[in-house]
Amino acid sequence: MDSTSKPTFDPKEHQHLRYNPLRDSWVLVSAHRMKRPWKGQVEKPPEDNTPRHDPNNPLCPGSVRANGEVNPEYDSTFMFDNDFPALQPDAPDPGSDHHPLFQSKAARGVCKVMCFHPWSDITLPLMQPAEIRKVIDKWADLIVELGAEYTWVQIFENKGAMMGCSNPHPHCQVWASNFLPNEAALAERCQRDFLQKHGEPLLVQYARMEAQAQERVVVENEHWLVVVPYWATWPFQTLLLPRRHVFRLPDLTAQERDSLASIMKRLLTKYDNLFEVSFPYSMGWHGAPTGSHLQEDMSHWQLHAHYYPPLLRSATIRKFMVGYEMLANEQRDLTPEQVCFLLNNYKKRHILVFAIGFTLLHLPHLLH
Asked: Cα separation of 238 and 51, whole Å?
């Protein structure tokens, strides 16, 4: 190459921007940054000595919670009202504000906690598919129950102390609100605009194209597809999509629910195997809004789940969204294609962990 010619673009070597159509935003991809040595914070690896039952853990069967209530001796899923809810159904209206810089409005809702299993030393990837299916059925029931009244029902799981989980017990939270939260409102607008412009739901088209390309597919089966999205922000972020056009969790058939239990177990097992650790993440479901929206045309919506794990180089080195990411633009240090390769080749873990930590981009025979 002479001094006047331009280098050929290589996504693994040259920074570039990728568009996220679900958020109408851009992410900066800078894979060459993985060459730098790490001298930042190192987390403690998660402890693996969680007792099966701890009477002092408020999520265990038979334990006393903060409000004095005693949990039943449950043997499957268990639901209760959050003892410290961020949303309450009877909060007073703050009144109307007329100045554009000082606006407020009423926020009402309910917050619930749902335990997946009576044992504290188990997580979703360690549960049997039939047990995961019960979790899925309960999620669907909650969308029907709470969605009859509330505009948005957010199901989410924070797994691991790194993600702020204060109780080592398999569980999720469900917050239902009378308003459309920011992320939901953004997904609503972007999916509606895409359908109007292109004549097909955004995520229906995207799932079909990813299934055809196979470049970022982590796991798949007859009814579901998991990809590292082209626009991923978090290092090992994944997107779980149905192959069929589905608005909400209750719309899933029995076969699709069984298939979902299977693919969730496979995905989360891959996560755990990558660094041989119980992989931390925040995950949540996004489906069409509920409440008054149940009577509206929601054909632009496609049900999907986001998984946002924080780990970057190892079980003890995480990605921090600070500085430039907070003040300017989201940024990632690995291409989604590299991440997909790592997740699909975790059996070469000892080579891959070394590669991630030190010379990832110097191993073209692993990451091509």
From this structure: 30
